[in-house]
Design goal:
Elements (H helix, E strand, L loop, with lengths): L6 H12 L3 E5 L5 H5 L2 H10 L3 H14 L1 H4 L18 H13 L16 H12 L16 H8 L4 H4 L18 H13 L5 H7 L4 H12 L14 H7 L4 H4 L18 H13 L5 H8 L3 H12 L14 H12 L18 H12 L6 H8 L3 H12 L6 E5 L4
Parallel strand pairs: 1-2
Helix pairs in contact: 3-6, 3-7, 4-7, 6-7, 8-12, 10-11, 10-12, 13-17, 15-16, 15-17, 18-21, 19-20, 19-21
The structure holds heme C (4 copies).
One heme C (HEC) binds next to helix 18, helix 19 and helix 20.
């Protein structure tokens, strides 16, 4: 393909490159979806290639209509108002169209863009896109990763429950390879007194619900192993007696249903204590009470020996992505460190943190409609959203110069 780049653009590109902007060859024809798309996208291309005179006209429109919120420099000083300076031109134009059509919800920009012509939107988008972007903002502190936070909060538990939740002390249960939901229910039960145990109650008194979730996630992700404690009973007799238990706890004590705890590799003494507690009613559970009532101490010991000898299995739980891992996914569309090189794709670098948080919520609640971002935002937790917003707010924003490369 022979590329013909107009000389004027060459000069502009050299100047902009010296000023630190990225230079991107962009062929309008090469993007089939643009060529075949409706007027919206074609007008987006007009915003990219606006002339100096059109940009100047866009500045006059901004002065008349936009500056009370966005400023003449496109750098916001107000909460909830995004920076526009240096944002990608075709994206800005498309968002203005989205406000006009109501696809972004109406409130904030209501009445502002409704009466502007397409031509005016093209020009004002080109104007704000041509400005130098805001400086990055580094003051935001990232929230700790939930697994790291869980590990820190579980430091106090290791003395009894062992490193990584693998018990070395008879009577102390393994916490590894248990469903987070079960562990959280157990912790809340102790804390509220519904599950009676004075020691665990006092130990969990100061532990927040968020920390319980983090602790449970941390233990769920550790490599499972049997409790390193003795088991006195007769395993073979225990196996025979335990046939009826397999329906809920799994034949080898590995439960396939999160409603029933796994008991494979559990500390034998704790298993006996638990069965006795169900039997005498100090631990309440309808299903287990009836079953345990029929068991004598000998059978309990044998069953405990059988289950203690089984191998606990890793849970089907994925480690949540770190902020850096998420950002890699986002950057595939939004460009390296949020510096998009696609004129239709918003840059995120240097954007206001609280605006990024709000917008991600808007995608999730569909106030702001975008199929790509609906899917992405659904997968994010609150902590992910805050950390990603903080991450992009502190990236250095770079302007981009799009050089038209006509098809052959
Ligand atoms: C009354 C204050 C106000 C005025 C006037 C105003 N805006 Fe906005 N603008 C906002 C707010 C608030 C948002 C964020 C809304 C949201 O969260 O969707 C916004 C969002 C935008 C966005 C979306 C940015 C992005 O990153 O997605 C664009 C583009 C925009 N404004 C352009 C303009 C232009 C151009 C004008 C003038 C024609 C203008 N605005 C006038 C308040 C204003
Ligand atoms: C001083 C020893 C000790 C410490 C420290 C301790 N625990 Fe325990 N934990 C126990 C004992 C004993 C039990 C069994 C109680 C029972 O019979 O219900 C238990 C039971 C549990 C259970 C129930 C397990 C199951 O299979 O149902 C959970 C969950 C738990 N502890 C979490 C924690 C967490 C989280 C910490 C740290 C914040 C902690 N424990 C610290 C002694 C301790
Ligand atoms: C109908 C389903 C069901 C059957 C059958 C069943 N269990 Fe359970 N089991 C449960 C449920 C539900 C719990 C959790 C109750 C709670 O939260 O205290 C549980 C809890 C336990 C616990 C405590 C685990 C822990 O980590 O604290 C032990 C031990 C146990 N069962 C042993 C047995 C044995 C032995 C049998 C066979 C005699 C058996 N279960 C049969 C449903 C069942
Ligand atoms: C498949 C491509 C794709 C991926 C991956 C993607 N985005 Fe987007 N994103 C888009 C598109 C397209 C838009 C513009 C949607 C619209 O018109 O509102 C957008 C818009 C946004 C906006 C709004 C920007 C503004 O100025 O209003 C934010 C914030 C955002 N994305 C954050 C993220 C984050 C964080 C991730 C990673 C978790 C991510 N995106 C991953 C395609 C993507």
């Amino acid at each position: 393909m022979k590329r013909r780049v107009p000389n004027l653009y060459r000069i502009a590109v050299v100047v902009m490159a010296v000023a630190g902007a990225a230079v991107v060859n962009y062929s309008p024809g090469a993007k089939a979806q643009v060529a075949s798309a409706g007027a919206d996208k074609k007008d987006g291309l007009k915003a990219m290639y606006a002339t100096a005179a059109e940009v100047a006209e866009g500045k006059r429109i901004a002065q008349a209509t936009c500056i009370r919120c966005h400023g003449l420099d496109g750098i916001s000083t107000a909460k909830g108002v995004p920076h526009l300076a240096g944002q990608r031109p075709a994206y800005l134009y498309l968002e203005l169209r989205a406000y006009q059509s109501g696809a972004r919800g109406k409130k904030a920009m209501d009445g502002v863009v409704e009466f502007l012509s397409d031509d005016a939107l093209v020009k004002v988008a080109a104007y704000y896109a041509s400005l130098d972007p805001a400086q990055p903002f580094a003051a935001h502190k990232a929230k700790p990763d939930p697994v790291q936070a869980g590990k820190a909060a579980a430091a106090a538990c290791a003395a009894c429950h062992g490193e990584g939740g693998i018990s070395k002390t008879p009577g102390m249960p393994n916490l590894v390879a248990l469903e987070p939901k079960y562990l959280v229910t157990a912790m809340k039960g102790y804390k509220s007194g519904q599950r009676k145990h004075d020691l665990m109650k006092s130990l969990l008194a100061a532990v927040s619900e968020a920390d319980m979730n983090n602790i449970a996630l941390y233990y769920a992700l550790q490599t499972p192993a049997r409790a390193q404690t003795p088991a006195a009973g007769n395993q073979a007799a225990g196996k025979t007696a335990a046939v009826a238990c397999g329906a809920c706890h799994g034949n080898q004590g590995v439960s396939a249903n999160p409603a029933f705890p796994s008991i494979a590799g559990q500390d034998a003494q704790y298993l006996v204590t638990a069965l006795q507690a169900y039997k005498n009613g100090s631990r309440r559970d309808e299903a287990m009470k009836g079953l345990a009532a029929a068991l004598n101490d000998r059978v309990m010991k044998d069953m405990a020996a059988f289950y203690a000898a089984q191998s606990p299995q890793p849970l089907n739980i994925r480690k949540p992505l770190t902020t850096a891992e998420w950002a890699q996914k986002c950057d595939r569309c939004h460009g390296a460190n949020g510096n998009s090189v696609d004129p239709f794709m918003p840059a995120l670098a240097g954007q206001r943190m609280e605006y990024l948080v709000k917008v991600l919520h808007d995608y999730r609640t569909r106030v702001h409609q975008s199929s790509a971002m609906a899917a992405m935002s659904d997968a994010l937790t609150e902590v992910d959203i805050e950390n990603l917003a903080a991450y992009y707010a502190r990236q250095k924003a770079r302007t981009v110069v799009f050089v038209p490369v006509p098809g052959k």
